[in-house]
Amino acid sequence: MEQVVTLEGAQKLTGTNLEQRGIAPGASGQPVPVLPLDGRSVVYTVLDHDTVIVAGVGENFAPNLPAVLNDDPSDTAQATMVMLSGNTQKSAPFLAILFLHSAAPSKLERVTFRAKGHAHPYTVKYGPVEFDTFAKLVTDAAPQSETSVVDKLIDVLFSGKTEAKSQQLAAKLVGHVARRDGFVEMIGQFDEGDIYVQGWSKELPAGNNRVFVFDGSLNVADFSCCLFERKDTGGKAAGFSGILDPGEPLATSSIRNLFFRGRSGWNKVDVHDKRTISTARALPGQIRALLPRLGVAGDGRSRLETAAQRFDGRETVSELDVPVRVGIDFCAATNTGEVILCGWLLNPEDHVDAVHLRAGNTFARLDETWTSLNRPDVTKAFEDLSPFLRGAGGQNRHGFLVCVGELDTCLKEKPYLEIILKDGRSAYAPLALGQTTLRSALRRLVAGLDPAVASETDIIERQFLPILGTAVSPEPSVADFLDIGAVPETASRSIVVGLDGAVEKIRTLLPILALDPFLRGTPIVLSASSSVLSEQLQEIKRIATLYGMAVRTVAARNVEDKLDALQAGMETAPSDMVVCLNSSVVPLVPGWLEPLVSAYQEREGSCLVTPTILYEDDTIRWAGTWIDKEGGSHVLKQHYVGYPRRTLLGAESCEVVASTFDCCVLPKSALPESGGFARSYLGTDEKGMDATLKLRRWGLKSYWVPQVEMVHPEDGRGSERLWNKIVGQHDRSQFERTWTTSFAGLKETS
């Protein structure tokens, strides 16, 4: 029998002493962690690689404190403190969320909190422990349920400025305690951004709920839902159908879980792997089909009834029981993102609250910015719909015209009008947008408008000019070229003509150039957009072959006018001296080019030479541009515009400040090296003058040769005159903003 040795002074370790040290004896004799209550030690759990939660007992700490780990001043963390109600008055259990600057240390032995100038050191008695064990330790020490503890942590994480890190931690906490309670089987997003979900759950209540949506981080959302019977669950669960309003835009494909606070704690509804993702257009029909099965309890039904009336691709304005109707006469989306609409809205009894243009999740309100138009034809067509449309006092201003910028979503999603009534209902009208350039869209719109309407100052200044002022097009470039006849590789001079869609102009100009004996052998470059050239190419080939001409045809990209075509065509000219010619300009007599070339060569080819340009009635269109001083400021003047041709008898060649590209001679390299034609102009007059001023600033002066005369007829079509008026207002404003402050310096160099 072994001898028993008695150790004097030794004391038996009681269970109480073990608990004070943070260790309790288990049934098997192994130590089981408990929350230390001595105010000097803590237990902790690792939430992720750089976040831990510490629990202990202490005084009422401030919400945010710095903490030092393992007595190493260089190893610090920011601590978010959560105080729990305890059994003692002097101290209470606390939780400290430590946001570490780096990964959690392999061994955490000591944590020191700094508060009010004092250090509060704590020794780690046990840890790390699993979160479930950690939560049980805390709830055993504090008279609060595990769910309440998690609620407090989540409230702290979401208080103040919510960051992505806090959201992820909150998601982890909720995920630890939430119980699975059903599945989401259908999900889809409306254009407005709210999300429809349908599935089944055991504890989800009907009505308005506050839920967490997890898509990689936790997002707070309002959830309005209704319940319906699901026989396939055997009465153990109910189906739900509802609308989520997330605080921030969410992608339905990334949503994984919904967390909600039930009567007995946190619950989780998982999004099923084989869920149906419905489109925005299909959702209203799905909800309408489900409405008869939905319960009437809660506030969710009214929200679903409203959602069931959203746009599903159908026109519903004509189904309204009030005198509201809509029609669209013109609608186009431009390549720069603008949308132009012209139509009418019948609203004689003022039922309409707002009109929106929608495409996907983008919308723009129209009725606050559109310009009203007089439309008596609409009044007559619907006069039986409302008494306010009959009689002499009937309303006629039903028309509208609006230009909306920065809605490039309309080019990707199908757009529609949303008519919002004052009673809260909405009706819809789908739109079929044509896609074209901004300039082409406005040209087509103006051509279909009453000239008196289109020229109204309100329309031009409020609708057209703002979007025209922001439109910028890419530089023109050569896509391809084709030679007809023997075009030499190099020549002393070549004529470059910019073409538009008017075939009759080139039919007139080419024979005149071919029959001029002084131009025999001179290569001619005809440049146009690819679409225009393809339409005119056969006619050009016929004329060039008939007269034995050397013609190079150039198909160009990004061409919006003749000057764009001219710039692209100059790149392919086979000579250093280039004669630029507008396809609408016609010489009066043969031999017109020789005096221009002589003036050009006299100045050693370092200038721009231009003839006189006349209207077809023998009045002057252009005969030099000068800078004059008026009222203390410098202005650009054309002294002879509108005067009879005979006014210029005896005039001598002279230097001018600016010139025109209707007809001019200049070095081939000058235009591209000076910056080319500006892309902010819509017409060719100011655009050409802008280029000649840039050439002057670059070092190339302009000269006018008055004895050479060319004719440039004015376009007589009404729609073109109206378009030119709009273009003129815009371009003059653009030109003045660019050059007015430079006129004084340009005058000194002349």
CATH architecture of the largest domain: Alpha-Beta Complex
| Unreliable residue stretches | 1-30
Task: Indicate the structural class.
Answer: alpha+beta
Report how far apart the termini are: 128 Å
Number of helices: 18
Strand content: 25-35%
From the alpha carbons, calculate the radius of gyration and give it in angstroms.
40 Å
Beta-strand segment tally: 38
Text of the CATH class of the largest domain: Alpha Beta
How many structural domains? 4
Largest sheet: 7 strands, mixed, barrel
Q: What's a quick, concise take on this entry?
A:
The chain is 25% helix and 34% strand. Strand 3 (41-48) and strand 4 form a beta hairpin.
Structure description:
By secondary structure, the chain is an alpha+beta fold. 25% of the residues lie in helices and 34% in strands. Strands 3-4-7-6-5-8-9 form a 7-stranded mixed beta barrel. It has 18 helices and 38 strands. It has 4 domains: 19-170, no CATH class; 178-307; 317-470, Immunoglobulins (Immunoglobulin-like, Sandwich); 588-750, Alpha-Beta Complex (Spore Coat Polysaccharide Biosynthesis Protein SpsA, Chain A). Helix 10 (457-470) packs across helix 17 and helix 11 (503-514) packs parallel to helix 12 (530-547). The longest helix has 22 residues, at 718-739.
